[in-house]
């Protein structure tokens, strides 16, 4: 053993260990950002699941419909009347209280605008604009020194759905 050689790390060993540490740090930061994005998305869904439920119910009604009554092909704020194979008619509209209703049952509150159009005999496009509560993430709100009222944000549900109630695979 050489008596002049001291114990410790060489410069190249130190640089490699710092490089590996930085790579691990970048991976951890990316995981932290992704988890906070998922938490924000999940907390928004948990506090107000109705927009997703209303959109899915409307999508199912459109898919099961055999036709649309009263269509002009242009955007219309009028009620959307969907005929089913059973002969029943389902009506989607916005009532006087700014609620999206399906045959008199409210599905979504704080609707700013509602419109629909028939793109082809078997294709319908629907757009619903509504105000959703809360613009802050859960963590930012929880970390604040005092509670704050979150400002509502404007959101849009936009669907383009093929009517499949009459059967067949064509549009």
Strand-pairing-aware structural class: alpha+beta
- Give the terminus-to-terminus CA distance: 83 Å
Number of strands: 8
- The helix content is 25-40%
Question: Describe the biggest sheet?
Answer: 5 strands, antiparallel
Low-confidence stretches are none
Q: What is the N-to-C order of secondary-structure elements (H for helix, E for strand)? A: HHEEEEEEEHE
State the shape.
elongated
Q: Provide the β-strand percentage band.
A: 25-35%
Mean pLDDT: 84
Helices, by number, come to 3
What does this structure look like?
The chain has helices spanning 11-47, 50-64, 138-143; strands spanning 65-69, 80-84, 89-94, 100-102, 105-108, 111-120, 123-132, 153-162. It is an alpha+beta fold and 171 residues long. It has two domains: 10-47; 50-162, no CATH class. The mean pLDDT is 84.
Structure, briefly:
With 171 residues, the chain is of the alpha+beta class.
SSE layout:
Blueprint: H1 11-47, H2 50-64, E1 65-69, E2 80-84, E3 89-94, E4 100-102, E5 105-108, E6 111-120, E7 123-132, H3 138-143, E8 153-162
Antiparallel strand pairs: 1-2, 2-3, 3-4, 4-5, 6-7, 7-8
Q: Keyphrases for this structure?
A:
alpha+beta, five-stranded antiparallel beta sheet, single chain, 3 helices, 2 domains, 171 residues, 31% strand
């Amino acid at each position: 053993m050489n008596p002049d050689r001291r114990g410790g790390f060489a410069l190249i060993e130190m640089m490699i260990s710092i490089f590996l540490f930085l790579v691990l740090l970048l991976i951890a930061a990316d995981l932290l950002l992704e988890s906070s994005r998922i938490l924000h998305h999940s907390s928004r869904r948990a506090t107000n699941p109705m927009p997703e439920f209303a959109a899915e119910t409307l999508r199912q009604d459109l898919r099961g419909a055999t036709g649309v009554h009263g269509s002009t092909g242009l955007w219309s704020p009028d009620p959307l009347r969907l005929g089913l194979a059973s002969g029943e008619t389902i009506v989607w509209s916005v009532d006087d209280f700014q609620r999206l209703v399906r045959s008199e049952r409210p599905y979504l509150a704080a609707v700013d605008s509602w419109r629909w159009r028939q793109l082809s005999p078997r294709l319908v496009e629907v757009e619903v604009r509504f105000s959703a509560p809360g613009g802050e993430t859960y963590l930012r709100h929880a970390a604040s020194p005092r509670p704050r009222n979150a400002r509502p944000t404007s959101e849009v549900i936009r669907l383009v759905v093929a009517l499949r109630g009459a059967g067949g695979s064509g549009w």
